Request: fold
Amino acid sequence: MSYYDLGPFGRTITTSSPEAQTWFDRGLTWVYAFNHEEAIQCFQKALEHDPDCAMAHWGVAYAAGPNYNVPWELMDPNGKAKALAAAFDATKRAVACAARATAVERALIGALPVRFPQRDPLPKDESPGMAAWDKAYTRAMRDIFASHKGDLDVRCLFVDAIMNETPWQMWNLETGQPTEGAATLEAMAVLDEAFETDAASWDHPGLLHLYVHLIEMSPFPQKALRAGDRLRELVPDSGHLVHMPTHIDVQCGNYRDVVYWNQKAVVADRKFVERNGVMNFYSLYRIHNHHFVIYGAMFLGQYTPAMEAAQELIDTTPEALLRIPSPPMADFLEPFISMKQHVLIRFGKWREIIAQELPEDRDLYCSTTAMMLYAKGVAHSVLGEIAEAEKAREAFRAAKARVPDTRLVHNNTVEDLLDIAAEMLSGELEYRRGKFDIAFAHLRRAVELSDALPYDEPWGWMQPPRHALGALLLEQGHLEEAEAVYRSDLGYDGKLARAYQHPENVWSLHGLHECLTRRGDNVEAPLIKARLDLAQARTEVPIRASCLCRRQAA
Reply:
């Protein structure tokens, strides 16, 4: 079986073995594509051909260490110990082999001992702990960059070091400014300089990848559109890099590209599964692509691709994978199985929701169980089956209490997501009881909780609570508040941070247009209608309200 098509990227290193060079290039590409397990295997293959290749040892150390998605603090104790031991041992070997390396290679290798200064992890409660190692490594890389600014890999590794000090905290979403203590502007300046002055930077998967991550939380995600467009097809068999530009697409309302390119990423990753199976950490990245397809398709109003992706996500996440204890795969992956419930609610599949059977193992599938009970409660509420809805809510509350605080949907805890679910369900139930003020209070609280979630892309809560709030406000004739709700969701009023907006989504466009029409607006309504018509041109289902929990059609 031929190896993956990783494109032409590479870096010439000190080795007499062409095979070692080839495997190093593959490993470095995988590092930049965030497939660190496969990268380590490639670097080890390089060492089979050249045991004294200093940069291959460097690669093992680098790939074994922390990264933007898995910093030290997210590693479980066993995983952290294994990662540090591997990185420390490889660092020693790299240093031992560095004599015949080039000056820049020796510099990169020389930065490793400050990143991995000992073989055993520091206690978790020791301050500043292993974060001090990250800072020391960044200082070392800053010095190396000052002497080797023309080296794009050095530039990339320096920016990576900066971003790993404050992963997913590069921007304050509320202020639109860099997070206090984050060297965001320095990282952006280093990357911008490369793209403005060196054409080769547009062929560098690491620089392009980091730029997307750096800019996605900013007030100007469109700044990374061109980088994303270049990255999409640069490394054809890296599903993660095929997918990565859609972090920007979704922020810009390009939902069709979100679906299309994540479907392409899913196809690319099937090659990885054929060779490597699913029992690996990269499964988290694969499932991330399915998650994105679901999210984009829901905003497009396309049930079929959303449900197909939700089902394939379930099918590609076997129980055996969830039972891997280190890293704790159930904590990382099981909550994604519940995404199917969001699809069913989004498209009003109330009877299908009610007919679902709960998982047999409700401890392993605790997040899924809670979300299914939430969905059943909403479905019964919408159908006016109040007694059944109350029973479902009680069962949901009990299931919610059994979900451990370690369960995650990437950057969001399941606990936080289920807090939103609790408010949404109570809002739907009280609404059907005719207690509208109480219902709207719950739904407004759901909006507040959703707006307070740590940044994630896509959001773990898949249907913006504003869509239900706006739909039910409209149903009761509260046009002014409903209009404000939709304007915020679309980003038209500037009140929501950029990352919390959902530009040009068909659901809120429909709601806003209805508000304008019902209050007799003849100026803005035609403009919104044009945008709505464009969005509706791709929908698979008729859009009659911003949430199908609204029983009275517009």
Summary: Residues 175 and 352 are 42 Å apart (CA to CA). Residues 255-276 form the longest helix (22 residues). The chain has 27 helices and two strands.
